[in-house]
Recover the amino acids of this structure.
């Protein structure tokens, strides 16, 4: 004889837990409106009974998916991974789910990724940077989709921004090298096309040099993909273009790791012969030899703040918010005063 199985319903959970159906629903869809003890009790009963919430059915009634979409340049980067992990934890605490898409630093792919997320059902979006293709903004406007730009801070923007001033942070790093006495500085930048963060960081270096009456020649700016191999190749190219360089500033720590490894392979002492600095403050940055001078990016704080903003906005329609989380200069052993020229 065939065994008949019945699916556990929300009514069953409410009956066994001794609470109302509305209380069970809130424990899953809006846990912040119930006590932590009640949420824990309801979810424990639900798990024991094998109950799984039917989100799609709920969304038909509420017109909400309880889902936030995030489009990031890459997931092959611990900085973005840390931000996404923090964002997910914050959203989960409010009963939201996070779905992620990557655009590989390609603005046209960002539009396609956002369109796919919207088609699958999201209530709001987290984007990276302030520069987006027109197709992205048309999608947002057409759907009236709440969103926030992250990894950037611009209080003059018409859209909410949560992050830091890339240009200002890199200027402070360049000023550190200039204060040490460096006057010949090269830059290994990320690919600047469609990347306002990479562009802002190069402009920050230029701002610092210009303020001291120094130039940043085009031949001393090399754009590279964010890989160690690309960092090594760019470092070799810079050295071939100007053997008098005493400092190199990199658009992120991965490029800086490559630059240091190229110097090691070429017998060039860091920082005795040349100072190298990065941007991001990866975990490896404090363990590589020499330890890397860099800018610490508040990745986890960005993720948490973005989650808080969107949840609050969806609940109460809050005004646009601009939040500067700062980016601290971290001075370590890879930068030092330039060596005195050898006596002739």
């Amino acid at each position: 004889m065939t065994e008949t199985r019945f699916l556990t319903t929300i009514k069953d959970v409410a009956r066994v837990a001794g609470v109302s159906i509305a209380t069970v629903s809130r424990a899953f869809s809006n846990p912040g409106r119930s006590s932590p003890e009640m949420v824990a009790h309801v979810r424990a009963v639900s798990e024991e009974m094998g109950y799984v919430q039917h989100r799609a059915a709920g969304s038909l009634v509420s017109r909400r998916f309880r889902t936030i979409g995030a489009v990031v340049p890459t997931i092959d980067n611990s900085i973005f991974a840390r931000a996404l992990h923090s964002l997910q934890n914050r959203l989960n605490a409010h009963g939201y789910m996070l779905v992620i898409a990557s655009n590989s630093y390609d603005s046209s792919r960002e539009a396609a990724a956002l369109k796919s997320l919207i088609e699958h059902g999201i209530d709001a979006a987290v984007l990276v940077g302030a520069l987006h293709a027109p197709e992205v903004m048309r999608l947002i406007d057409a759907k009236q989709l709440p969103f926030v730009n992250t990894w950037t801070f611009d209080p003059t923007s018409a859209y909410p921004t949560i992050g830091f001033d890339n240009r200002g942070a890199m200027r402070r790093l360049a000023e550190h090298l200039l204060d040490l006495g460096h006057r010949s500085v090269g830059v290994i930048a990320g690919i600047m096309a469609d990347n306002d963060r990479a562009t802002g960081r190069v402009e920050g270096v230029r701002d610092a040099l210009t303020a001291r009456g120094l130039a940043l020649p085009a031949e001393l700016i090399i754009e590279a993909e964010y890989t160690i191999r690309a960092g090594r190749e760019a470092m070799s190219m810079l050295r071939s273009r100007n053997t008098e360089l005493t400092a190199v500033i990199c658009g992120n720590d991965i490029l800086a790791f490559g630059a240091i490894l190229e110097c090691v392979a070429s017998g060039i002492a860091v920082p005795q012969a040349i100072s190298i600095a990065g941007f991001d403050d990866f975990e490896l940055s404090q363990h590589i030899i020499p330890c890397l001078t860099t800018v610490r990016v508040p990745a986890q704080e960005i993720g948490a703040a973005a989650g808080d903003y969107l949840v609050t906005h969806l609940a109460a329609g809050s005004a646009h918010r601009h939040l500067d989380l700062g980016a601290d200069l971290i001075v370590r052993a890879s930068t030092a005063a330039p060596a005195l020229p050898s006596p002739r």
Notes: The chain has three domains: 10-53, 63-164+298-326, 166-296.
